[in-house]
Amino acid sequence: MAALKAPQTRLPHAAPVLPLLLTSLATALACQQLWTHDDTFPGDALRLLQDMAPSHTQPCHLQEPPFFPDTLLRDNLHPHQAAVTALRILQHLFHTLSTNSTRQHWPTQARNDLLNKLQHHIHLLEQCLPDNAALFKGPRNLLLTVNKYFRDIHLFLRAHNHSACAWDHVRLEARASLQHLHNLTRTMRR
After folding, report:
1. Nearest residue to 176 via CA among 188, 164, 184
2. What per-residue confidence (pLDDT) applies to 75?
3. Shortest CA distance to 183 belongs to which of 72, 105, 104?
4. CA angle 38, 40, 78 (to 5 degrees)
5. What are the CB-based long-range contacts (under 8 Å, 24+) for 128-134?
6. pLDDT by 10-residue block (mean), the chain, 190 residues
7. Given 7, 44, 45, 141, which is the most exposed site by the fewest CB atoms within 10 A?
C-alpha cells in the first residue's frame, strides 16, 4: 500500500519576502531603541563635555579654528541621508576624542563615559541602518564635508601641538557637533 502524501503548498514568490520582513522588523526595532536612547543621549553627552571643561580660564587665541560646516545644517535631508551623516559624525567624534593626546587634557572618567556613550550610539545607529552597502548611496558631498571638517580639526590640533587650549576648542566643536547631531536624528524620524 502506498503511503499517503500530505499536499504541499508552494509559495514560490512568498519565500523571499520572509527574510525581507524579518530584516525590516529587526531594523525597526533597532531604530525604536535608537529613538528611546536618543532622548537622553545628547543631554548626557553634552553634560560630560561640560565636565571636561578646563578649570582655569586663560585666554585662548588660536589661528583659524575649524567650525561646524553650514552645509550640514540643512533640514531638507532625506531620513537615510541624515542617518548616514549622523553615523559619520559620531564615528569621527569617537576617533578624535579617543586619541591618546586627549588623556592629559581631560578627566579620565568623563572622557571614558563619553566614549562609551558615543560607541553605544554608533552601534545603535549602525543597527538602525538597513545595511552597510547603503551607506554610500545618496549625495556624497555631505560625507565629504564631514570628512573635511574632521580632517581640519586634526590639522588644527597638529598645528597647535595638541595643546590644552586647542583641545578645549575641539571640546567646544564636539559640543556643536552633538547639538547638530540631535537635529539630524530628528530628521531621521520623519
Report:
1. 184
2. 61
3. 72
4. 20
5. 128/27, 128/30, 128/31, 128/34, 128/83, 128/188, 129/27, 129/80, 129/83, 129/84, 129/87, 130/23, 130/27, 134/80, 134/84
6. 58 50 46 55 78 69 72 71 87 91 82 91 83 53 87 90 87 86 73
7. 7
